[in-house]
Amino acid sequence: MSDGRNHEVGGIPVGSDAAAYFRHVMAAVPTSVVAVGGRADLDPVVMILGSFTSVSLDPMLVGFFVGREAARWKMLRASDRFCVNVLDETQAWISEQLARPGEPDLSSIDWSPSSGGAIAIAGTVARFDVTPIAEHDAGDHLFVLCRVDYLEEPTGSSPLVYHDGQYRGVRVPDSG
């Protein structure tokens, strides 16, 4: 019988605090910051994600997670091609601007059509033109599996990550 208080089972709070505690612990895990761009009815649509991952080398597959009810995803999923833009550490402002609710504001962002016609942002660390091939249920999210159609050589600059509630760059210490 429950007394209404939260109890801990195996290090995980049970009850109303479970999601907050999970979010708190996951903040210790750095995530990539990517801008996934496409076109919905020919209008540019971009959403910021922190869940981009490599899936397979042969065939080349990548994927990302999106909130099942995310308004921007509902617009973006109409696109048959995406460009995944891996943001550079100097592009935190782009992430902040594109993460705002409402229509994506690309007015101050230097972009052009990617090889597949999606939205390619200038100055990124790397870009992947991809075709979505499947969506899989993942709780309150969807996992979007994509085939890689085109790659751009990495620039060698430092990627932007999100860690502990802040944007950060990734720098490898000098070995000498």
Report on the architecture of this protein:
The chain has 176 residues and is mainly β. The protein has one domain (31-163): Electron Transport, Fmn-binding Protein, Chain A (Pnp Oxidase, Chain A, Roll). It is 12% helix and 44% strand. The chain has helices spanning 18-26, 71-76, 92-98; strands spanning 7-9, 12-14, 31-32, 34-40, 43-49, 53-56, 61-67, 82-86, 111-113, 119-121, 126-138, 141-152, 160-163, 166-169. The strands form four sheets. It has a seven-stranded antiparallel beta sheet. A hairpin with a 2-residue loop joins strand 4 and strand 5 (43-49). The longest helix is centred in the N-terminal third of the chain and has 9 residues, at 18-26. The radius of gyration is 18 Å and the shape is globular.
List the helices and strands and how they pair.
Layout lengths: L6 E3 L2 E3 L3 H9 L4 E2 L1 E7 L2 E7 L3 E4 L4 E7 L3 H6 L5 E5 L5 H7 L12 E3 L5 E3 L4 E13 L2 E12 L7 E4 L2 E4 L7
Antiparallel strand pairs: 1-2, 3-13, 4-5, 4-8, 6-7, 7-12, 8-11, 9-10, 11-12, 13-14
User: Approximately how much beta-strand content do the residues carry?
Assistant: 35-45%
> What order do the strands of the largest sheet run in, or round the barrel if closed?
5-4-8-11-12-7-6
Q: For this structure, what is the CATH class?
A: Mainly Beta
Q: What's the CATH H-level superfamily name?
A: Electron Transport, Fmn-binding Protein, Chain A
Number of domains: 1
- In whole angstroms, the N-to-C terminal distance is 62 Å
Mean pLDDT score: 87
Q: What is the CATH architecture descriptor?
A: Roll
Question: How many distinct beta strands?
Answer: 14
Number of helices: 3
SSE pattern: EEHEEEEEHEHEEEEEE
Gross morphology? globular
Characterize the largest beta sheet: strand count, sense, and whether it forms a barrel.
7 strands, antiparallel
What structural class do you assign from the helix and strand content?
mainly beta
